[in-house]
Design a protein that fits this description.
This protein is an all-alpha fold and 102 residues long. Helix content is 98%, strand content 0%.
Length: 102
């Protein structure tokens, strides 16, 4: 009977050690996998941010070009209006001179 109990205890001990060893092995594998996944996540995030940064920069440059063109058009129209005012003023003065001269 003592032999039987010793054998059961020995089997229990070996199985317990195997279970503990397997648990440590899987824990290491899980930690390795977690580390790899965290690195992949960080890399994917960095790539997404870089792509968006480039896209944003491109869109800002396009917007700046559009604004420059619009400002040039506004300046041209302003210059035309100023020239027209001077023309109107000159015509009014000429009319006054003609009316006063007659």
């Amino acid at each position: 009977m003592d032999d039987l109990i010793k054998k059961i205890i020995e089997v229990e001990k070996v199985c317990s050690e195997d279970i503990e060893s397997a648990g440590l092995e899987y824990k290491k594998k899980i930690e390795t996998l977690r580390y790899e996944l965290e690195n992949k996540k960080a890399q994917a995030k960095a790539e997404i941010l870089e792509r968006n940064k480039k896209r944003f920069k491109s869109e800002v440059e396009e917007a700046n070009e559009y604004v420059k063109k619009e400002l040039n058009e506004i300046h041209k129209e302003k210059d035309l209006l100023i020239q027209d005012r001077e023309l109107c003023k000159a015509i009014k003065e000429r009319i006054v001179l003609i009316v006063l001269g007659t």
